[in-house]
Design brief:
The protein is globular, with a radius of gyration of 19 Å. The strands form two sheets. Strands 5-6-7-3-8-9 form a six-stranded mixed beta sheet, with helices on both faces. It is 40% helix and 23% strand. It is α/β, with parallel strands linked by helices and 283 residues long. The protein has nine helices and nine strands. α4 packs across α5 and α5 packs parallel to α6. The protein starts with a helix and ends with a helix. The protein binds adenosine-5'-triphosphate. The site of adenosine-5'-triphosphate has 12 residues, from β1, β2 and α2.
Length: 283
Amino acid sequence: MGLLKEEYMNKIDPHIQQSQAHKKIKISLKNIGKQFKIKNKIITAIENIDLDIQTGEFVCIVGPSGCGKTTLLRILAQLEQPSEGTLTMVHDDLNKPLNSMVFQEHAVFPWMTVKKNIAYGLTMRKLPKDQVEAAVEHYLQKTGLKKFANSYPHQLSGGMKQRVSVARAFANDPEILLMDEPFAALDEQNRIILQQELVRIWEETRKTVVFITHSIDEAIFLADRVYVMTSHPGMIARSFSIDLPRPRKIEQVRNSPRFQELFNEIWNILRMEVNKAKQSEML
Ligand SMILES: Nc1ncnc2c1ncn2[C@@H]1O[C@H](COP(=O)(O)OP(=O)(O)OP(=O)(O)O)[C@@H](O)[C@H]1O
């Protein structure tokens, strides 16, 4: 059961507020649920989601296919209205966008050069030209795209295109980055390289990130906290604090006994949820 637009705005707007310095919670979800109506059938995508995300925290969400991860992210991006519950997001600096989204693929503009793609959000905000150029230059450098600044997306590999998406999101300088399986379509080598680059840029910027992934390895390598969701309808099954030291290097993380321990704990929960999802598909 959806909300009317006005009801929704009443729910969201008062909570996108300027924070006081002592406030640490950036995103708070209380009892969030979402139902979709298809023909006469109601599908509960997510239910009873309660979680708090701290300012500067890197959060990964893993869960079986179809458990509502994208729905949750779309609610955070305000592309979707929750059917129930309260979403609170603290907007600290009104000169910056509250959030930017990075999608799995097809998110770069094919008619724009790499440089123009990265500059897009800043240009739309009509920021001074030299400020835009400095930000673009910075992220071209950080993502190894300098040589391709004037190339068009069709001249780039899949990995390069995702770099452009990541560079654009960071250059836009949002307070919250919402990432929906951004590396899922990449081959293993490119995925590792981009994970390493993302972690490096994030460790410098410490933005609040919500990152959806199917990969337990990826979640542990990137996150401060991993939430595991239940199968349909999606609820939070468990949360894991990822207490691995930073800065992180992929080889060190993967070889550490703590990584193995976390992997096994998360997999034990996820395996049960994936099996449940399979059983309900067979019914
Ligand atoms: N716009 C929509 N209309 C109807 N049902 C929807 C809509 N969006 C999502 N759903 C349903 O809600 C449930 C959750 O979907 P969602 O895409 O959020 O899951 P997911 O965990 O991101 O899936 P995956 O891991 O496969 O990408 C699914 O049953 C899906 O069919």
